[in-house]
Amino acid sequence: MKEKLREIQSALLTGVSYMLPFVIAGGVLIAIGFAIGGYDIPNTVEQYGNLASTIFWLGKQAFALMVPVLGAYVAYSIADKPGLAVGMVGGALADYQGSGFLGALIAGIIAGYLVNLLKKIPVPGQLRSLLPTLIIPILGVGAIGLIMIYVVGEPLTFLTTALTDMLNSLGTGNLIILGIVQGCMLAFDMGGPCNKVAYAFALAAMEAGNFGPMAANFIGSMAPPLGIAFAILIAKKKFTDEDRAALPGLFAGAFGMITEFAIPFAAGDPIRVIPSLMAGSAVGCALSYAFGLTMRAPHGGLFVLFALNNALLFILALLIAGAVTAALLVVLKKPVQEVTTEE
User: What is the pTM (predicted TM-score) of this model?
Assistant: First the structure.
């Protein structure tokens, strides 16, 4: 059972990893289209009617592929190449039915194990080569289609709609609690399962037209490397020469929304660093909701500030989040000499 759970967890991470290029490319192009032509492009300009509209719709096309690709590569992780077509159709059906990311994840898992079962069909040796190219695609696509349409599709769509409605109806106090949870998840493993779940939640909300969680996601992801950079500047003696040499990279990670620049520091001193990062990101995400921030791009850090509804408040929340992390690190971390002595 534990092996199956690990396999599913690995499949989910694989699916999200392969999906991200579509998310980033599509989302940034959409944001650039908005920056050039305004947020009414879909309603006021003919599709591909001018440069802004063309960039916007190119982004929409890339963005539209992310849910099918997610389903495809979740299935691929479980069943290898034969799972791609089956998982992609399952993901496309999830998108069509309205269950989005959640539906694609479930469809990909079902498709992967379904294809593994189909691989065991007894076939004469001379027809064996037809199994991955003809038999599995036909039976697999047909089966996942029936399962999504008649079994799991509607319940997943209902659940997705209910979660979206609940999010949209949250008051400020509840949103702040949501921000604290979201920030802690983003900073806990920085690119691991918790981080990706929080990011997928923001993407799902964005797809449903709620851009608040994505703004919080930006701050929660940018705050860890920024907070460490601030701490190095404030208390140099508590960091090694190697740590201080990473300062430019930390600022680059913060500006570009690459949380992973903080991982070496968390791995080197997890007891002190990880809680500090979580606290800063939690404060930043909570402030994002309190300020009513929205972000229409799914990635890009400070390079897509034009996609924010209020860039000044965003920067303020980010600086506060980084300051909280830095203050905790300065208090909790011991000078390098003390750490060396203890060892």
Answer: 0.74
